[in-house]
C-alpha cells in the first residue's frame, strides 16, 4: 500500500510534468513544439510551392507517401540540408529560395527517384498479389501524373536574376 509521502511525491511529479509539458502559456509553447514559430517558416515561397505541397504530400493525389526522412534524403541528394520538421514545412524549405530552373530540375529528378522506387515496389506487389493489381496500378498512374506536373512546373518556371536593388522586381 502507498504511504502519504509516496502519494505526495507522485502528485508533485505529476504537477511538474503538467506544468512543463502541457502548458498553454504562449511563451513556453515554442519550447514544447520545435516545429512551431520559426521565423523562416513565415518567409514567402514561390507561387508553385503551395500547390505542389498539397499534391505531393497527399498520397491520394500523388500515389505515394513521402515521409520526413524521404524528404530529408531528397534534400541531401541535391546538396541541401533540412532539419526534420513537419513534411509541409520541409517541402517549403526545400523550394523556398528557388531562383534557377537547374535547381528545380535537380530537385524534381531526386523526387522522381523516390517515386520511381515506389513504382518498382508497387509493380512487385502487383505481381505477387494479382488480386490487388488494380489498386497498385491506380497508385502507379497517380505517380506518373504527379511526375508530369513536375515537368509542367519546370517548363513554366521563370528564373529570377539577382539585382543590385532588392526591391526591384
Summarize the structure.
This protein has helices spanning 4-21, 26-32, 47-56, 59-62, 68-77, 87-95, 101-128, 133-156.
Plain-language structure description:
This protein has 169 residues and is an all-alpha fold. It folds into two domains: 1-33; 34-156, no CATH class. It has eight helices and no strands. It has helices at residues 4-21, 26-32, 47-56, 59-62, 68-77, 87-95, 101-128, 133-156. α3 (47-56) packs antiparallel against α6 (87-95), α5 runs parallel beside α6 and α7 packs antiparallel against α8 (133-156). It is flat and about 70 Å long. The chain starts with a helix and ends in a 13-residue tail after the last helix. The mean pLDDT is 84.
Q: Report the β-strand fraction as a percent range.
A: under 5%
Morphology:
flat
This entry's quaternary arrangement is single chain
Number of domains: 2
- Secondary-structure element order, as H and E? HHHHHHHH
Q: Uncertain runs with pLDDT below 50, 5 residues or more?
A: none
Helical percentage: 55-70%
Overall average pLDDT: 84
Major sheet: size, sense and barrel closure?
none
Based on secondary structure, the structural category is mainly alpha
What does the radius of gyration come to?
23 Å
Number of strands: 0
Distance between the termini: 74 Å
What is the count of DSSP helices, taking H or I runs of 4+ residues?
8
Amino acid at each position: 500500500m502507498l504511504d502519504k509521502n509516496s502519494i505526495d511525491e507522485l502528485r508533485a511529479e505529476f504537477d511538474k510534468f503538467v506544468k512543463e509539458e502541457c502548458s498553454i502559456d504562449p511563451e513556453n509553447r515554442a519550447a514544447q513544439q520545435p516545429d512551431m514559430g520559426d521565423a523562416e517558416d513565415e518567409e514567402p515561397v514561390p507561387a508553385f510551392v503551395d500547390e505542389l505541397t498539397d499534391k505531393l504530400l497527399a498520397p491520394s493525389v500523388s500515389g505515394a507517401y513521402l515521409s520526413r526522412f524521404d524528404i530529408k534524403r531528397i534534400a541531401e541528394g541535391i546538396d541541401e540540408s533540412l532539419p526534420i520538421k513537419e513534411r509541409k514545412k520541409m517541402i517549403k524549405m526545400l523550394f523556398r529560395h528557388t531562383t534557377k530552373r537547374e535547381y528545380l530540375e535537380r530537385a524534381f529528378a531526386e523526387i522522381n527517384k523516390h517515386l520511381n522506387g515506389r513504382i518498382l515496389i508497387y509493380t512487385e506487389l502487383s505481381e505477387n498479389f494479382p488480386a490487388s493489381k488494380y489498386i497498385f496500378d491506380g497508385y502507379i498512374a497517380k505517380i506518373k501524373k504527379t511526375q508530369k506536373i513536375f515537368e509542367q512546373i519546370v517548363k513554366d518556371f521563370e528564373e529570377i536574376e539577382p539585382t543590385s536593388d532588392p526591391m526591384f522586381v
